[in-house]
Design goal:
The protein has one domain (about 5-280). The protein contains twelve helices and no strands. The protein has helices at about 5-25, 30-55, 65-85, 90-95, 100-110, 115-135, 140-165, 170-190, 200-225, 230-235, 235-250, 255-280. The longest helix has 26 residues, at about 200-225. The protein is globular and about 45 Å long.
Length: about 280
């Protein structure tokens, strides 16, 4: 285990994702599905290259599960992109991080996993954070909140599907399915509200996929060489980077109490992760 290197990889990952989040907010003049299209297009360049170079079967073996993961994934992505249209980028990212709570609830019913009483207290803490965030941040609209929570819920379902797939498929195959479906869905649905990008916007739109790919790559590398208990919490500094970038580059403003709401959300999730690792 190389903890320092793993933390470095995770920090690089969170910076990449934070930059992608800020770009999404900056490019909100483009429709959600056009953003989904370009986000997937940039990543597909890397995934197809890896699959072809390493001679990994592109279609995989569990096609129904892979397609289902892709459909749920593009739904979650689209909802998150919509949420960014209606609230500060840091708030949207903070709300998205309640997805592990939804994953635990889905696992209770789908995988018959147990949720201990104390875990429900951690869940409650996170949801109180959601209420605080909405109640004290006038920049968070109801429709944005609904989109963000729906994005977190569908993201939680993605975790369950990936667990069902397990190690039966190569990780790049799973991501490639997701991005292919996202490209098709985003491409078709963006036709109705397409805005042709020009100049620097073309580069920025394609950068969404590049940043997303490297964010995923370095996050995977971090978990491969570091202990999950140490590395997982570092992932949550993405919220901090997103808030800082939103303030610095987009001129966003955050109320102190809305920051407290985000801290409550993340605290509830981290406490749940810690409890599950300590008392399995």
């Amino acid at each position: 285990m190389d903890v320092k290197k793993a933390i470095y990889y995770m920090v690089v990952s969170t910076v990449a994702f934070a930059c992608m989040n800020v770009l999404l907010k900056y490019l909100t003049e483009y429709s959600t599905f056009e953003l989904v299209f370009f986000r997937s297009l940039g990543t597909l360049f890397f995934t197809f290259s890896i699959l072809i170079h390493r001679k990994i079967p592109i279609l995989g073996t569990h096609k129904r599960l892979l397609v289902f993961r892709g459909v749920i994934g593009v739904t979650s992505m689209s909802l998150f992109f919509m949420a960014i249209h209606y609230m500060p980028v840091g708030s949207a990212v903070g709300l998205r991080y309640i997805s592990p709570i939804f994953a635990a609830i889905f696992a209770l019913f789908i995988l018959n996993e147990k949720v201990k009483p104390v875990q429900w207290l951690f869940f409650l803490l996170s949801f109180m954070g959601v209420i605080a965030l909405k109640g004290f941040d006038k920049n968070v609209s109801i429709i944005g909140l609904v989109f963000a929570i729906a994005a977190a819920a569908t993201s939680g379902l993605v975790y369950i599907v990936i667990r069902k797939i397990g190690d039966k498929e190569h990780p790049v195959v799973i991501v490639n399915y997701f991005m292919c479906i996202a490209a098709v869905v985003g491409g078709i649905l963006s036709i109705f509200n397409w805005k042709t990008p020009h100049g620097i916007d073309i580069l920025l739109l394609l950068s969404l996929g590049v940043l997303g790919y490297f964010g995923q790559l370095f996050m995977t590398k971090a978990f491969q060489i570091g202990e999950t208990n140490i590395i997982a919490p570092v992932k949550y500094i993405e919220v901090v980077f997103s808030i800082a970038a939103g303030i610095g580059f987009l001129g966003e403003k955050y109320a102190i109490l809305s920051i407290l709401g985000m801290v409550m959300i993340i605290s509830g999730v981290l406490l749940n992760i810690w409890y599950k690792r300590t008392y399995p």
